[in-house]
Design a protein that fits this description.
- With 293 residues, this protein is an alpha+beta fold.
- It has helices at 57-85, 91-116; strands at 5-8, 11-20, 23-27, 32-37, 44-45, 50-54, 119-121, 126-131, 138-139, 144-149, 154-161, 173-178, 183-192, 202-209, 221-227, 231-237, 242-244, 247-254, 257-269, 272-277.
- It has 2 helices and 20 strands.
- It has a 6-stranded antiparallel sheet with strand order 1-16-20-19-18-17, with no helix packed on it. The chain has a 6-stranded antiparallel barrel with strand order 2-11-14-13-12-15. A 4-stranded antiparallel sheet has the order 3-10-8-5, with no helix packed on it.
- β12 (173-178) and β13 form a beta hairpin.
């Protein structure tokens, strides 16, 4: 096999982390004690499923009072209409009774809306990723209780050095490798954040992962592969390189003799490997070295 110099496409990786494209933090909208929590972290949930029940006794009392007030205001309004029609009441009295009726009805609707806040429901089909509340705890407005994510829509988020950004574009297909599960994925660049991190000089790149997401969890380590500008180099079959202890060798043929040559390898390209040092090009090497020993 004659060694030749040729353009070599260098591929480097950027470390990233998996995340769901849809993750929703569910929080309380009113101060109340927690009656029950029906799910734990890792549980699958359906859209509309009740996840947390808050103590709604105070709201029920408010609703009963609002209903009673509406009933009384409706009776007063009906009576005022009858009196106005028989010219026994003024128009001002009628409008005042009507205003009280509409105000009472609005108050009852407001309390009914508050009743819905006592049930924390899942807005999507997904999986519970975090549970921060227990029965008996006091939930305050804005306090995060649970988080739910969509496991079918995962992405890799990677801080890409600015020097590599011109190699990526929106909707560009890319390769991804995850550590857990140990699998390769195809993906497409879905977002490139415009802001540069002043400390790391990187920009966040989000890649939508394609294919089956079985076993993929948020927070997993992954690699985003980026192709750099091709450079001139030497690539030989991986089978031509063998190890002696910590040293990498190839066997060069000179004048009918086989001579060991120390080399330094770089990236692997399918069934080939780049030679960084030890060969200059033009040499004859054995694609399958002779066994030494």
């Amino acid at each position: 096999l004659r060694v030749e110099r040729r353009p070599v496409s260098t591929r480097v990786y950027v470390m990233g982390t998996t995340a769901s494209e849809e993750k929703i933090n569910l929080s309380a909208r009113l101060p109340a004690y927690v009656n029950a929590v029906f799910v734990s972290a890792g549980d699958p949930v359906k859209k509309g499923q009740t996840l947390v029940a808050l103590d709604d006794r105070e709201i029920r009392e408010q609703l009963a009072a609002a209903e009673a007030q509406l009933k009384q205001a409706d009776a007063e309004y009906q009576r005022a209409k009858q009196l106005f029609e028989s010219k026994a009441a003024t128009y001002q009295a009628l409008t005042a009774a009507e205003s009280m009726f509409h105000s009472a009805r609005a108050q009852m609707e407001r309390v009914r809306v508050l009743m819905t806040y006592a049930q924390i429901i899942s807005p999507i089909d997904g999986v519970v990723s975090d549970r921060r509340i227990e029965a008996g705890d006091l939930a305050n407005p804005g306090q995060a209780l649970l988080a739910v994510y969509d496991p079918a829509r995962m992405r890799l988020e990677a801080p890409v050095p600015v020097r590599l950004l011109d190699k990526l574009a929106l909707d560009q297909p890319v390769d991804i490798n995850l550590e857990t599960p140990a699998r390769a994925f195809k993906g497409r660049v879905s977002e490139i954040v415009s802001e540069i991190d002043p400390l790391s000089r990187t920009r966040q790149v989000r890649v939508q992962m394609e294919g089956s997401m079985d076993g993929v969890l948020p927070g997993a380590f992954g690699r985003l592969w980026v192709n750099e500008t091709p450079h001139e180099g030497i690539v030989v079959p991986a089978s031509a390189v063998y190890r002696m202890g910590q040293l990498e060798m190839v066997q060069v043929v000179e004048n009918g003799r086989v001579i060991r040559q120390l080399v330094t390898t770089g990236q692997a390209i399918k069934d080939q490997v780049e030679i960084l040092s030890g060969l200059d090009g033009g040499e004859q090497i054995l694609a399958k070295p002779v066994r030494e020993g």
